[in-house]
Specification:
Strand content: 15-25%
CATH class of the largest domain: Alpha Beta
CATH topology of the largest domain: Cytidine Deaminase, domain 2
Strand order of the largest sheet: 1-6-5-4-2-3
Order of helices and strands: EHEEHHHEHEHEEEHEEHHHHHHEHEHE
Distance between the termini: 17 Å
Low-confidence stretches: none
CATH architecture of the largest domain: 3-Layer(aba) Sandwich
Number of strands: 13
Shape: globular
CATH superfamily of the largest domain: AICAR transformylase, duplication domain
Helix content: 25-40%
Mean pLDDT: 95
């Protein structure tokens, strides 16, 4: 994991390395990421993709429509909504700052279209159940031949137990194999699109470091709050990412000029800072120098951000643990949440349900906790 630590594979059903030299953390990301996309595909019947960083997803999505802003940014204007590429483009677009140098997980065999796209973005590895002819060679040339290409083992059944060694102590527990499709209302009483969002949210939580909250919209996780010590910070973190994703669709952000010689990633970082309204003093000075005084005025003005943020809606919040207080709902309401999916079972769950009712949200209790460490 760190340069001064040596590591090796002890055993188990490992992915096959087709190119590169995986590290300890590469394996952690790849193994978790592939389980996420495999479960999401199985639950929804749609190709799934995830962008993984430091043992949690930066983004995850099902195949679907790539909106105009994402299509222009990632140069995938003609991508089919049912394609594997559409799933990864949507997953990477959720939090592209965090996705820089990610592990890519894909639920189906990598086609030439998806491989060509991976050649254009900064990522460190890909794991998938297979690769079309010629794809491995094309991907292996990335990063001067160091790009990791891993083929997942889809034939060996999952072990029923999982183990971790911590400071010389071996811990063992039953693997989490509950079928998430069984904990939601019947299909006939649930809009199919909303059901897919809820299922994706549950699967994302299952492979995100706890505590975690995922905000899902139109089959894509647009904000993930991972590894926080309290639930409301998960909601606020996921919400801030979702808000930036939404504000990147505003003409002020989307229309930020292309500065001469500036890379796509650098321009994207400036757009994210503009949307988030969180530049440091030196960044504000650089921003003014690069984009001009008029752009600085738009940065300082908060009106357009608040107006556009208030238009975000149809967001599903999925939580890996119960929401302990109604403040979680109050914050969720600021980020366009209309459906909450959580285990329930807290002594305050009636208060949480009442808060959801007051904000016009659908509240679903699953009875299923999805902590992951």
């Amino acid at each position: 994991m760190n340069p001064h630590q040596q590591a090796r594979v002890i055993g188990g059903s490992m992915p096959r390395t087709l190119n590169g030299d995986p590290s300890y953390i590469n394996y952690l990301d790849a193994l978790n990421a592939f389980e996420l996309v495999k479960d999401a595909d199985a639950a929804t019947g749609r190709p799934a993709a995830s962008s993984f960083k430091h043992v949690s997803p930066a983004g995850a999505a099902l195949a679907g429509d790539v909106d105009a802003v994402a299509a222009a940014l990632w140069r995938v204007g003609n991508v089919e909504p049912s394609s594997l590429l559409s799933a990864y483009a949507r997953a990477r677009d959720a939090d592209p700052k965090s996705s820089f140098g990610d592990v890519v997980a894909l639920s189906r065999s990598v086609d030439t279209e998806t491989a060509a796209f991976l050649r254009t973005v900064i990522c460190d590895a890909v794991i998938a159940p297979g690769f079309e002819p010629g794809v491995v060679a094309e991907l292996s040339a990335k990063q001067s031949g160091r790009f990791l290409v891993l083929e997942a083992d889809t034939t060996t059944p999952r072990e029923e137990k999982e183990r971790q060694d911590v400071q010389g102590v071996t811990l063992e527990q039953q693997r989490d194999l509950v079928d998430v499709t069984t904990v939601l209302p019947d299909e006939g009483s649930f809009d199919p699109a909303a059901r897919d969002d809820a299922l994706l949210g549950l699967v994302v939580n299952r492979y995100t470091q706890s505590n975690s909250v995922a905000l899902i919209r139109d089959g894509a996780a647009i904000g993930i709050g991972a590894g926080q010590q309290n639930r409301v910070d998960c909601v606020r973190l996921a919400g801030s990412k979702a808000r930036i994703w939404w504000l990147r669709r505003h003409p002020v952000v989307d229309g930020l000029p292309v500065a001469e010689g500036m890379s796509r990633q650098d321009r994207l970082n400036w757009q994210i800072r503009l949307a988030g309204h969180d530049m440091t003093r030196s960044q504000r000075d650089d921003y003014t120098m690069i984009f001009g005084a008029e752009a600085r005025e738009r940065y300082d003005d908060t009106t357009w951000r608040d107006e556009h943020a208030s238009m975000l809606t149809r967001v599903t919040l999925a939580s890996d643990g119960y929401l302990p207080f109604r403040d979680n709902v109050e914050h969720a309401a600021e980020f366009g949440v209309t459906t909450i999916v959580e285990p329930g079972g807290s002594t305050r769950t009636p208060e949480v349900k009442e808060a959801a009712r007051q904000f016009g949200m659908t509240h679903i209790e699953t009875g299923l906790r999805l902590f992951h460490h």
